Amino acid sequence: MMADSAQPSRPTARAIVLQSIVIWGGTLVLLAVEAVVARLGLGPLDVAIPLVCAAVQLVLIALFGMQLVRERALLRLAAVAGVIWLVIMFGLTLSDFLTRGII
Amino acid sequence: MSSASGVLREPWEDLERQRLASSFGMWVFLASEALFFGGMFMGYTMMRITYPHAFAEAGKESEFWFGTANLVLLLTSSSSMAVAVRGAKAGFGRLATWALLVTALLGIAFIIVKGVEYHLDLDDDLWPGPGFKLGMTPAQIFWGFYWVMTGVHAIHLTIGIVLVLRLFALARLGWLAVTENPSIEVTGLYWHLVDIIWICLYPLLYLVGRG
Question: Closest by alpha carbon to B140, among B42, B54, B44?
C-alpha cells in the first residue's frame, strides 16, 4: 500500500543526541559567521553572506530537525509546495518591482 | 477507539497511516504559514530596496546581542525538539519527555529575553509615530516591520510553548503515551517552523547597517 517505506533500523538514544548536537553545532557556527561578516563592512557581501548562512541553517533544520531527509515522498512534496509558492510570489513581485523604469 | 499503545485514533486503521496523515496536515498548514510570513518578508524586501539608507540607519538601533542570544536559544530548542521527536519515534519515552521540557524552557527564555528587549526598544523611543527616535523618516517603516514581524513570531512561539508544555504535562501524568505518538512529531514540525522564521528574521532585523 505504502511502497516507499523501507524502515531503517532504530537508532540508539546516543546516536539521536549526537546527531542533534552536531547539527546544533553547525547552525551555531553559521550564526557566528553571519554575525561577524555583517560587521566587517564588505559592501553587498554584508547582506549576501548572512542570508546564505541563514538559508543553510534553514535547510539543516528542515532536513534533520523536521526529518525531511528520511521522510516519505508525500511529505517532502508538501514541504516543497510551500517553497514553490513563495518563489512564485517573490519572483512575480520582484520581476515587476525591480524592472520599473527599465522596461 | 484506541490501540494497545493508546495512540491510535479513529478513523485510521494503523499508526503509520495516522502518522502520515497528521504530518501531511501539519505540512500543509506550515506551507500556509510560510506564505503568511512570506508576504511580510516580501513587503520588507520592497521597502528595503526603496529606502536602503533609512533601513541601514534604523537597523543600527536594534539590539544586536538580544537578537543573537535569542537565535542561540531557538537553535538549541530545535535540537532538543529533534531529540524529543526522534526519541519518541525510536521508543525512548523518558528521553523524549525531558527533551520536551528543555524545549519549552528554552522557548520561555526566548520570550523573557524578547520582553526585556521590547522594554529597551520602547525606552529608546523606537515605536513608529510622533516622538520616534529617528524622526519622521522611512526608518519608521523598518521599525513597523520589526514590531509586527517579531510580535507575530512571539505569538506563534507562545502557542508552541503551550503545546509542548501540554505534551510534557500529559506525559508526566501518564495520560499520554509518548512512544510513537504522532502528536510529538506534529508539534515538533510546528516548533521547527517557528525557529526557521526567527532564522530568517535575524539577518533582516539585527544585522542591517552593522558594517
Answer: B54
d(CA A24, nearest CA chain B) in Å: 6
Quick one: B206 exposed, middle or buried, by C-beta within 10 A (0-12, 13-18, 19+)?
buried
**Digit-coded pLDDT (tens) for B3-53:** 445 788 888 888 888 999 999 999 999 999 999 999 999 999 999 999 999
Between A100 and B204, where is the model more confident? B204
ipTM of the complex: 0.91
Q: Cβ of B207 and A34 within 8 Å?
A: yes
Would you say A38 and A32 are in contact if contact means Cβ atoms under 8 Å apart? no
Question: Which residue on chain B is closest to A58 by alpha carbon?
Answer: B196
Per-residue buried b or exposed e for B94-109, using 16+ beta carbons within 10 Å of the residue's own CB: ebbbbbbbbbbbbbbb
CA atoms of A99 and B7, how far apart (whole Å): 54
Whats the size of chain A, residue-wise? 103
Number of Cβ within a 10 Å radius of residue B40? 16
CA distances from B77 to A79, B53, B121, B122 (A): 21, 35, 25, 28
Q: Does A33 touch chain B (CB under 8 A)?
A: no
Q: Give tens-digit pLDDT for B85-142.
A: 999 999 999 999 999 999 999 999 999 999 999 999 999 999 999 999 999 889 999 9
Amino acid at residue number B201:
L
Q: What is the pLDDT of residue A8?
A: 59
Mutate to test the interface with B, among A4, A20, A42 (most CBs of B within 10 A): A20
Cell of B155: 505569538
